[in-house]
């Protein structure tokens, strides 16, 4: 179980008018509002500040809970007087207000770090450049079906802090991003999972992959010899990042390329898991999640289940009937023999690679959006093999044209989800798949990837 997490930052020197310790929350989204609620519950003098505008839902909650807040800017006098600051993972350390807090020695922590102080639940923490939402959802599905009292939080669902304040879960499955890890210090995972490391969000890491990888390795910090670390033995960047690290936890690798003594591996078409005399076997053809990348995701979730000594029958049933999350390789419809797949959550090149790798038919691929310095070269081989046309969905598609003009005969520009769906439908033939897997962020034309995926699904239904 998690030990009590007491830090020097909890001995607050700065107080509000009623003598309560002053805590400031920066960012008024799901995680920030949840942290504010937990802090209020724990007796803090709480102030929430958002540089942008708050959603009505969150504003109403803050008013209902009698928590002071501001939007549309930061009042520095209110913020710099905090004993401690909980910041949204979306706010970079380079933001001026964060730099001022750091300069004066004010502790700046993540919601996960803060909420972890107030629960002794077992923590199953899952990170990776790709697959973490799917693996977190599958792990939660297995544990819940096994009868465990478990919550799902982090980058997914209701905020961890809000659940700590309102629930009494004995286990948490937490999807953890590198941005969250950067501001976690005393928090400890009982079971940590690192799925893979590929170039993503490098603008936050001085464009150095090794900095991003070091951030991912923080998933193992504070772990002890009684804890477990699950990782992919086939991922070169993960193995490289582990070198020189002092990992105290018991290591449980997974591989589809070689036999593993303690961990998971593939024996022909059978997924094998061996953990501390606990043995599990299942045909990959029976897994709900298909495709090479999903074998790794299923292995990681399966190892977690075996560490917790769950019954094989429960695992087999859950891994066979799991339904993937919305916007991740989500089947939308079959029209005139053409399958439409919504993979809007693929916001980087590696995610799109995984999506294409799992396709078994010819593909009309919908790509584009806000390009985060993408290197499309890793897609070229799969595009040559499987893609008959590319439909660009974004304001600036030049880099996509430059990357694939020698590999695909047809590349068309579109400016809305409806137009993209219609053009792709006309380019596809019976037996083909129209795949929305953009490899880019969505903010040029959409609110977020969910909005992009929903507009695509609505457009398909109108065909």
Automatic annotation (TrEMBL):
Residues that bind ATP: 128-134
Pathway: Cell wall biogenesis; peptidoglycan biosynthesis
Record domain Mur ligase central: where: 126-304
GO BP: any one term: regulation of cell shape
Main location: cytoplasm
Residue ranges of every copy of the Mur ligase C-terminal domain listed in the record: 327-440
Enzyme class: ligase
Species per Swiss-Prot/TrEMBL record: Mucilaginibacter pallidiroseus
Protein's job: Cell wall formation. Catalyzes the addition of glutamate to the nucleotide precursor UDP-N-acetylmuramoyl-L-alanine (UMA).
Protein's recorded name: UDP-N-acetylmuramoylalanine--D-glutamate ligase
MF GO annotations: ATP binding; UDP-N-acetylmuramoylalanine-D-glutamate ligase activity
Family that this chain belongs to: Belongs to the MurCDEF family.
Any GO CC annotation of this UniProt entry: cytoplasm
Domain of life: Bacteria
Entry keyword Electron transport: no
Keywords carried by this UniProt record: ATP-binding, Cell cycle, Cell division, Cell shape, Cell wall biogenesis/degradation, Cytoplasm, Ligase, Nucleotide-binding, Peptidoglycan synthesis
Pfam families: Mur_ligase_C (PF02875), Mur_ligase_M (PF08245), MurD-like_N (PF21799)
EC number: 6.3.2.9
Compartments where located: Cytoplasm
